[in-house]
Amino acid sequence: VQLVESGRGSVQAGGSLSLSCEASGALAGRHCMAWFRQAPGKEREGVAAIYVVDGTTYYADSVEGRFTISQDKAKNTVYLQMNKLKPEDTAVYYCAAKKDGANWSRGDDYNYWGQGTQVTVS
Prior knowledge:
By secondary structure, the protein is an all-beta fold. The protein is built from no helices and eleven strands. The protein has strands at residues 2-6, 9-11, 17-24, 31-38, 45-51, 57-59, 67-72, 77-82, 91-99, 112-113, 117-121. The strands form two sheets. Strands 2, 4, 5, 6, 9, 10 and 11 form a seven-stranded mixed beta sheet that branches. A four-stranded antiparallel beta sheet has the order 1-3-8-7, with no helix packed on it.
């Protein structure tokens, strides 16, 4: 399984960006796809997740109401729409996938990771 992110960019505070993550290869059975981010000098943080089968979504408190995770099952693609961006949202954003399970924000549970894409908010 390979995860390929796209949509990196730089925006001013208050602006919007959209990231996408296309999965190639078979993610068998029920699985969860998520976005994580890591800013320089900070720990990796779970941003949002979607359980593919039923579409249940979860968000970090820091992005609730501003970010939206969605999916296109036919394209094996997950999206992250980021609105009202803040400078503290600046980070490398990673797409990740794992089999269904609890603890959506626990990065160590994820088996597959994308290469990361830079988001800069000034």
